[in-house]
Amino acid sequence: MNEIKIKQVLSEGVKDFVVESPVIAKKRKAGQFVIVRINEDGERIPLTIVDSDPKGGTIRLIFQEVGKTTCAMGELEEGDSILDVVGPLGKATHVEKIGTVVCVGGGIGVAPVYPIAKAMKEAGNKIISVIGARNKDLLILEQEMADISDQILVTTDDGSYGRHGFVTDAIQQLIDDGVKIDLVLAIGPVVMMRAVSNLTKKYNVPTQVSLNSIMVDGTGMCGGCRVSIGDKTKFVCVDGPEFDGHLVNYEELMLRQKAYLPQERKSHKNHKCRMEGME
Amino acid sequence: MTESPTTGKPGPNKKAGKRNKPKKPKVPRQAMPEQAPEIRRNNFKEVPFGYPIDTAVIEANRCIQCKKPKCVDGCPVGIDIPGFIKAIAERDFEKSIRIMKEANALPAICGRVCPQEEQCEIVCVTGIKGEPVAIGRLERFIADWERDSGNVSIPDIPDPTGRRVAVVGAGPAGLTVAGELALKGHKVKIFEALHKPGGVLIYGIPEFRLPKSIVMAEVDYVKKLGVEIEYNAIIGKYYTVEELLTEEGYHSVFIGTGAGLPYFMNIPGENLNGVYSANEYLTRSNLMRAYDFPNADTPIAMSKKVAVIGGGNVAMDAARTALRLGAEDVYLVYRRAREQMPARDEEIHHADEEGIQFNLLTNPISINGDEEGWVKSMTCLRMELGEPDASGRQRPVPVEGSEFDLEVDTVIVSIGNGANPLLPEATPALDTNKWGNIIADDKTGLTSMKGVYAGGDIVIGAATVILAMGAGKEAAEAMHEYIMSIDV
Question: ipTM score of the complex?
Fold first, then answer.
């Protein structure tokens, strides 16, 4: 069960696994996630299902090593198994033909945006992808995104590749160029999703974001993943993970993501991989 | 310990004429030894130690063996209570556990968490003039005796019937249904959403009240009856109920998914860091073993001052867990009076002994945070009791101008659970009521779908382990009849 069939390194600290999981491979839809636990002492962490092969019975998971669990998971090799894989969880993306969809992925966020862009493309939409990273080395899935996009724009914060700047600069450019955008889908660090939402709100462009909050069970039982959407509290695991980007309380989400930072540091102390991604 | 001291006083010899035999001295209800409060508040070990053999025999001899035992009627699963107690009195423990298991596959659990004082013990005839027989403690004793003996007896299983049953949820209801149907020769598989079996017994009830090893031993027993368990299988997502009945080839399905949807207060500040549902707090500590962090990877708040909102058993569990995790002050904040708390007396008593501070007639109105988004205090109102409400309890009404701040860094909301909508939402043919509970027949558990039965908290709302087991038992009977009536 849950054997790692293929392991690839996409960039520093970003691993790409193809994992045997026949039922989930058949059932999963774009936008859904799994919860994994790698060993008996492990915590449960949510990971977006990036792709699946229903015939081969595998799912694809991409993750960044940011804490003890993701680092330990990154050390697993082909032939090893992940102890628990639960899913598919969360509501699937609402996929329909609406026109032009701008799919925005920042950093590791390109991984969860990929399946949604692919599904939107298959539904007959025009896909403009905007993907960004801090620098060229951290950019992932460029070719895959290009393959399913009608147009792709790449940005790097340091200008080492593509357009020098943020994904919001590229979106602004599209708006300035008069491109009619029917929907923006943005996934990435909370600050990025907030910036994209602030921008698109000015132009009344509908925007969906996919949130990654701290979870335990993933079935609505614990409520640890709650977020404020407008004036309502929602559970990311069962009500999401996608929400109207213009209604998300990003400040609260950022604070909640840091809830266990001191403990994470303690837990991670003896582990050699990086913690930057937590900030 | 609540027992009255031994009086040793012989009963009055009223009519000395007919029989001159003096009445036996009245033996008091036997106390169960337990860890001292000041010690146990620092560990997760079980609080009571259980009866030693001789004490159990003395207690068993207090049972007067009523011809028409009321206690059996009081038991949701109809255990032959006088029967198993008589066997203890006769020191025939093997016989006792056999009688027990005819009606109850999980006695070590029920002996610990059943509210006996509201069920079997409240109607005990011995309790009319004195204290009732300690039925729960004896149940626990005999279950522990069997487990400690290492020879857990497995009843004979009849030949396979060729019928397959899927059970959704490995909690008290599901385990009961699975055990009962396996005993009738059906092939049973349980689909469990989490990575461990037990449901609320494993994620909810803490170690100090129900050791996990006991839950695992009882689950092992069910497995030995031939029941298979698939973990990480969320029905509604992984397979739908329809798929279980069609592609997966099950003849009948039982749904026992429990009441897994925590209610919050809907007051300002509830999404601050440091605010938990009791479900999350207990799941982190119990299922994920956050008490053993960083040896176990799952963290939990390192709290100094904790407020637990609510007055039920779960609130007591959360408060006592916070204490054991190192909190200095744990306040139990409840808007009604102590007499109105839904928790068992024993749990309230234990919490009190351990130093939980009861803030009764107190209602939180907001939770206040610091710049980092962490809880720093909770604003509350004092309440007083007014007219009785729909539940018959006096309604708490706010005392004007009584607002005050309780300085806390953690708030645990323990005001109940609703029906988790995950499975019903994925199963449109399943009728639910306005609260989202699955509608099922009172007697049989049959739902609006042919061959699909349900029971436990998902049907009746958050209740007790034994009621879920009682529902499971009834459903198993009905399911047995149903699957034997169809051609396979």
Answer: 0.92
